[in-house]
C-alpha cells in the first residue's frame, strides 16, 4: 500500500542517557492546576477545578531550538510545566495502576496566545487557536523514571536570567497520578502520549530576542531564544 504523498514523520524526543527516541502520540494539557495561577488569571480555585485541552503532537520544539514568535498575537505568554511521558495507556485507569503507565518526565513550555485565550474565555468559545498552534510546546529531553514516581521538586522559569516562575510540584491541585486517572475517563491513553500538567503563577508576555530558561528539579532543563516569526 502506498501513500498519495509522504506521511509526516512521527514527532520524537531524545531520551536522557539513551540512543533511543520517544515517539509522540498526542499532547494533552491540564489548565488551572496551581491555585496561585488560577488567582492571577482572575479565577477562584475552589470553583474552578482543573480543565483539559490539547495541542497537536507536532507542536513540540526539541533540542533547545529557537522558537519563532507566534503569528496572530500581541500577547504571547510562557507557562513552565512538568510534562508526563506515558509508556503505556488504557481507559479508566485505576489510581494504583496509574504510575505504571509512566515512562518518564520532561520540562515543557505551554506557549499561549493570551489575548486570544481571554477573548475565547469571555465568549465561551474554544481555546484551540490560543493553545494548539505551531511551535507552542518546546520540551526538554525525557528523563526516564524507574517506578513512575516523582517526589516533590522545584519548578522554575527565567527570562533573560530573571526568575519569573518558581514553585513546588507539591503545589499542584491534581497530582500526577490523579491527572492520569482523570484524563483516562475521557480518552484511551496510549504509549507516546505527553501530558502537560499546568503552570504556577508568574506568567507574562515575552518578545523577540528574549531568552527563556526553565527546569524541573531531577527531571531536566530547557533553554532557548524567541526569534522573529516567519511572515509567509
Ligand atoms: Mn498551561
Tags for this model:
globular, mainly beta, single chain, Fumarylacetoacetate hydrolase, domain 2, binds manganese (II) ion, 232 residues
Short summary of the structure?
The protein has 4 helices and 17 strands.
Structure overview:
The longest helix has 10 residues. The chain is mainly β. Helices cover 12% and strands 31% of the residues. The chain is globular and about 40 Å long. The protein has one domain: Fumarylacetoacetate hydrolase, domain 2 (Alpha-Beta Complex), CATH 3.90.850.10. The structure holds manganese (II) ion (MN). Manganese (II) ion (MN) binds next to strand 3.
Radius of gyration: 17 Å
β content, as a range? 25-35%
Query: CATH topology, which one?
Result: Fumarylacetoacetate hydrolase, domain 2
* H and E string: EEEHEEEEEEEHHEEEEHEEE
Mean pLDDT: 96
Q: State the CATH class.
A: Alpha Beta
The quaternary organization reads as single chain
Q: Helical amount among residues, as a percent range? A: 10-25%
CATH architecture name: Alpha-Beta Complex
Instruction: Give the number of domains.
Output: 1
Overall, the morphology is globular
Classification by helices and strands:
mainly beta
User: How far apart are the termini?
Assistant: 34 Å
Largest sheet strand order: 4-3-15-8-9-12
SS summary, helix count: 4
Q: How many beta-strand runs? A: 17
